[in-house]
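Our collaborator T.R. sent over the components below with a one-line note: 'Predict the complex.' Nothing else. No constraints on interfaces, no templates requested, no preferences about which chain binds where. So this is a plain run: every listed entity goes in together, and whatever single assembly comes back becomes the starting point for the next discussion.
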Amino acid sequence: MTKAIAELQRSAEEEALYCVRCGLCLSVCPGYRESLNETDSPRARVALVRAAKEGLLEVSSDGYSTAFFRCLLCGACTFVCPSGVAVDRILELTRGELASLGLLPQALADLDARIAEYRNISAEANEGRLIWVDNLPTPPTGLGKERAKVAYFVGCVSSFFPRSYKVPQSLVQILDLAGVDYALLGGAEWCCGYPMFIDGEPDRARELIHHNVEAVRAMGAQKVVTTCPSCFHFWKHSYPAALQVDRMEDLGLEIQHATEFLADLLELGDLKLHELRQNVTYHDPCDLGRKGGVLEAPRRILAQIPGLRLVEMPENRDSSYCCGGGGNLESFAPEMSGAVARKRIQQAAAVGAGTLVSACQQCERTLANAARAEHMRIRVKDITEVVLEALEE
Amino acid sequence: MTDWIQELQTTIGAAKVLISPIDRIAYSFDSTFEQQLPDAIVLPETNEEVSAAVRIAARYDVPIVPRGMASGLAGGSIPTRGGIVLSLTRMNRILEIDKENMTATVQAGVVTADLQAEVEKLGLFYPPDPSSIKQSTIGGNVACNAGGPRCLKYGVTGDYVLGLTVVLADGRLVKTGGKAIKYVTGFNMNQFFVGSEGALGVITEVILRLICKPPYARTALVHFPTLEDASQSVHAVLTRGLVPATLELLDETAIECIEEAMHLGLPLDVEAILLVECDGADKESVNREIDTIADICLQTGASRVDVARNEEERAELWRARRSVSPSLARKAPNKLGEDITVPRSAIPEAARRLKAISDKHGLPIVIFGHAGDGNLHPNILFDKRDPEQWQKVEQMVGEIFALALELGGTLSGEHGIGTFKLPYMRQALGQASINIQWRVKQAMDPQNILNPGKVLPEP
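Returned assembly:
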């Protein structure tokens, strides 16, 4: 084991020492709540780190690696822990150790290799990032623009997965209606690096981070807006450390999620929003809400739309229940991921919502799939779609 | 693979029998610092599967340790002699809520908070409220006779058990009690299994008595410059004929720990606080009661009374109370939380002696608990990696139990004995009582396979 890894591992173990094994994390862990098997709990993962340290088992033991990747990374355990154990940090460090020992699950190792080669998660030519503009009635003003105040960082999923095209399509139409000076990066946008980070290979993300920051600075942008909560969370909370600054503002860049940008924009009152008579509930994406700290902006947006009634699910804001799409769990345990998604969509139905609104392309996809699987008459929409709808009518 | 594991897998299904090193670690502990690996874990989903597992354990003479969510604080669900851990968490169905008779029939693995939420939707109420309400199960609550703050007014888990389904040590299924409130027919078999810590049988289903949800509650935080006065106030309130739902005591160290973790603005210049809650069906009388209690407290030494103005403030106070135990973790790597009870009037003396024990050994003791019941949770904070500290802790525990017994109290009010309090059982009960109880255990479990080495010392 290299010295650096030994140091990392030591701090994961030290963090693990604070766990008093009270088990409160089990009550909020979506994975445990599905399997009802302690092995799938945050408490067990912390115990495994300790057990490895105490020599009770090897990290190469069967199932050790799986235990740390069978997790949605929703962060609910870290948030609820009364002892303040940073379970997310323990996971991060342990995944790092596993990766360095070549014990990363193959699907994730392949994903990281793909990103390193193609600069996106889909192994497609990176120049194809803007294919979604083809279906728009008029080309967005941000297309091909070399300089702008705002850089819209679209993210891999919305760039390459047709299902999610509607997210950037909606946002650029809103930005154009509002006359915002923004630019799209196209092929100059590379994967933000988050997948590598959560796969335990943070060092591989470094090149991507530097490139992206250079790309937005080259266009003179003062603000980076993302629609993907994971891009947002990573840009805002992990980029600074990689760039050796305290905050992105130290580099003259403000990082905003689209919901923050739109909330401010709509509250100026320049855009006329039409009535949408709907009962909606809002699902907080983990990377945006609990982990990203953006809880009120989406609600401020919904409050601006006349006729729209927001009914909250009991597990909302910081206590939001994951959509099931987090942490790449789908690639290892699609059943668990699907079951978590079904539980969440049932919670939305239970409060009488006709539409579930989220602010994440991943949440939208997993929850819409769950609604279909359950034969439920509930619409699932990204918040940008809802805003555009209110602007168009 | 041993024969019995193979047989478990063929009979119950390989997916419900876990044997990997990872799984064995996950099921090796409870909420204490002890651990011991089981050889296998069974995750049954039906009474029949529980029965099959116990039958195989009996045939091969293998220890079998039932558990719920393992939030126990006495080592009760740790497989100290290896063998099988029988995790009942997947038996989590609420089988029936009978509105008319006000009962709930549930499987053992139902989470207590989930049951409460379900019955409250119907205006009903299941009062027992251990701090581990979200991470403990009804089966575990019954097996440990769990208490909680509200038990001052409403009674403990055992007071709500009307009937049980239990798998006996030979795998047979027996039902005790029923929905009838009065049931004087033979020995009281319900109470026989209540608090038996899995040593007499495996509880798989429970019929619980429910009451109506009191619609009004008011909660007050009372500041006391001295712990003695807090204790006097508890006495004064109860002897005036007032029965608040809770009278929770927290000493200065406990307050400091919560405040460090949660920043709620709790007072840091007092020796104790009391958390008082009144509830009931009539708003005016609840308000009157909390006001009267506030007056009594102010007359008996309280420096300040803050009544929560709304539900958020009230919820926050209770979140604080429930976080005491885990919030101690930042103070020291390990804590040993005891659960002594003393006659209520002896609380000030108990607190004084606990402080003296702490001073003598140089390790902090945090005191909190259910003052109205005389049930205190002194928590010793230490670092188990330091052998000298561990030695001191062992001496301190002995002294704490001795003081509880000297003051006319006992070892445990609601956590149970597990393995942690086993060495003190003779002192607490006397040999004659141990002998009788051991004969009962032998009658129920002649092979000593059900959670062996717990609750009762071998005579």
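Summary for T.R.: Chain B has a mean pLDDT of 95.
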